[in-house]
């Protein structure tokens, strides 16, 4: 009875058209559904260039014709009949079921991320760590081996070093640039490989193509954490990776508002390996957060390109500045893996690492003198942020492990934002002056 009234109030939409549903597939522009002539007029969405696709890919309007993507802030969905509910559960009917499994707004973002990445399928997760942990836990079982690069985001390191061994998984860390060590670790069968390039926080660049070749010989699924390069500047799937993970909290939201994560890969792996795990363990993104990110992804290219231009300028400035021992930026010729970076990335991206004189004291004096650039452990934000990894994000690592990763006490990670580069340089001069006055 109630549902009849609601159907009448909603008119055509509820009674008639069934919203298109399949999660995370690339969809034609919805206008193509209007009429046969509109269908023939409509250019193939894949013929659009990347900036256009950041705005249009995966867009599915409701019959109300809203300009902005609709936000479906709903936990569940109702069925017209018991038969439709039954069919939804057997899979014979295409209908949203429950937002832990799928939701029109999150599906919209999944389709757009698939398009951006060139992936067949995507599952969004509540956070970036949700993406990394699901991508690994969905596939491993006791007795498996997992090989990972040593230089990982702190929580990723914890999952490999602490969590997986608890479940009977053998884990092996390798120095990312040591190809002999990769070869050795992958001379025996392995279930998965996890790597990050450029790495956090010192921006090591790893040879993704070569590691994928070795990993595949060992039967491993390669998971690449592509946060630092962003989907714009590095395409791990084209380099041979099987799965790409993101913290969407970083450049994809990019404005410090919401947490989110994404796992992308081929449809078979996502549907058969990952999705049963995420559906049943509940690591789902809120449709509200997905909607926020649908808005921010429209400007991803504008923001990340401008931040990268700033990063390149700031890195050049720091390289010649007094009190700065060393600068690491994948876009600079003096980066230890510059040639490799040039081969597998199309730009240096938004992060710069540098080391100041005076160890921890020097780093603290430098950071405390900044007036524009904020001290924070986040990154990829429109605001410029600096971090002292040795005492924050990487404090839990043993000192020898930090030394091995090149995280000295004077090292600072700089996530370069959208401010005017001259203002950023003026602020860095404050830090440099304070270093000189110590
Ligand atoms: C931030 C980050 C993560 C974790 O993402 P959250 O959204 O904070 O959970 C994982 N990997 C890298 C490289 C990151 O920068």
TrEMBL record:
Names of required cofactors: pyridoxal 5'-phosphate
Assembly and binders: Homotetramer.
Record family assignment: Belongs to the trans-sulfuration enzymes family. MetZ subfamily.
Chemical reaction(s) catalysed: O-succinyl-L-homoserine + hydrogen sulfide = L-homocysteine + succinate
Region of interest called Disordered, as start-end residue ranges on this chain: 26-48
Gene Ontology biological-process annotations: 'de novo' L-methionine biosynthetic process; homocysteine biosynthetic process; transsulfuration
Stated role: Catalyzes the formation of L-homocysteine from O-succinyl-L-homoserine (OSHS) and hydrogen sulfide.
Protein name, as recorded: O-succinylhomoserine sulfhydrylase
GO terms of molecular function: carbon-sulfur lyase activity; pyridoxal phosphate binding; transferase activity, transferring alkyl or aryl (other than methyl) groups
CDD domains (alphabetical): CGS_like (cd00614)
Any one cellular-component term (Gene Ontology): cytoplasm
Gene giving rise to this polypeptide: metB
């Amino acid at each position: 009875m109630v549902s009849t009234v609601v159907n009448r109030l909603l008119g055509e939409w509820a009674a008639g058209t069934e919203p298109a549903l399949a999660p995370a597939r690339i969809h034609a522009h919805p206008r193509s559904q209007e009429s046969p002539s509109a269908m023939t007029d409509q250019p193939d969405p894949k013929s659009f260039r990347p900036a256009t696709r950041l705005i249009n890919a995966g867009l599915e309007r409701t019959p109300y014709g809203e300009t902005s993507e609709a936000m479906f802030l709903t936990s569940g969905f109702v069925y017209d009949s018991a038969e439709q509910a039954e069919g939804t559960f057997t899979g014979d009917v295409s209908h949203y079921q429950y937002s832990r499994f799928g939701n029109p707004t999150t599906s919209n973002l999944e389709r757009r991320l698939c398009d951006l990445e060139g992936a067949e399928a995507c599952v969004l997760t509540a956070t970036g760590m949700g993406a990394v942990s699901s991508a690994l836990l969905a596939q491993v079982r006791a007795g498996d081996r997992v090989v990972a690069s040593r230089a990982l985001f702190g929580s990723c390191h914890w999952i490999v070093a602490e969590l997986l061994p608890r479940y009977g998984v053998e884990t092996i860390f390798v120095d990312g640039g040591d190809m002999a060590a990769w070869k050795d670790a992958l001379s025996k069968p392995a279930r998965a490989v996890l790597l990050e390039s450029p790495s956090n926080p010192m921006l090591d660049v790893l040879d993704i193509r070569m590691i994928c070749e070795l990993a595949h010989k060992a039967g491993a699924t390669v998971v690449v954490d592509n946060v630092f390069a962003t989907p714009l500047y590095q395409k791990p799937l084209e380099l041979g990776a099987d799965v790409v993970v993101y913290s969407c909290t970083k450049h994809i939201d990019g404005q410090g508002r919401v947490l989110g994560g994404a796992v992308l890969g081929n449809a078979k792996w996502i549907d058969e390996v990952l999705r049963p795990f995420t559906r049943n363990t509940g690591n789902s993104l809120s449709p509200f957060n997905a909607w926020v990110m649908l808005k921010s992804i429209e400007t991803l290219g504008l923001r990340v390109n401008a931040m990268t231009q700033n990063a390149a300028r700031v890195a050049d400035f720091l390289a010649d500045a007094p009190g700065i021992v060393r600068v690491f930026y994948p876009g600079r010729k003096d980066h230890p893996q510059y040639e490799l970076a040039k081969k597998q990335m199309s730009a240096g991206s938004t992060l710069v690492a540098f080391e100041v004189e005076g160890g921890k004291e020097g780093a603290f004096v430098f950071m405390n003198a900044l007036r524009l650039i904020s001290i924070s452990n986040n990154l990829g934000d429109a605001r410029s942020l600096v971090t002292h990894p040795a005492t924050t994000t990487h404090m839990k690592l043993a000192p020898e492990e930090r030394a091995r990763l090149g995280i000295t006490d004077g090292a600072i990670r700089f996530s370069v934002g959208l401010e005017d580069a001259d203002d950023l340089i003026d602020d860095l001069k404050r830090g440099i002056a304070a270093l000189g006055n110590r």
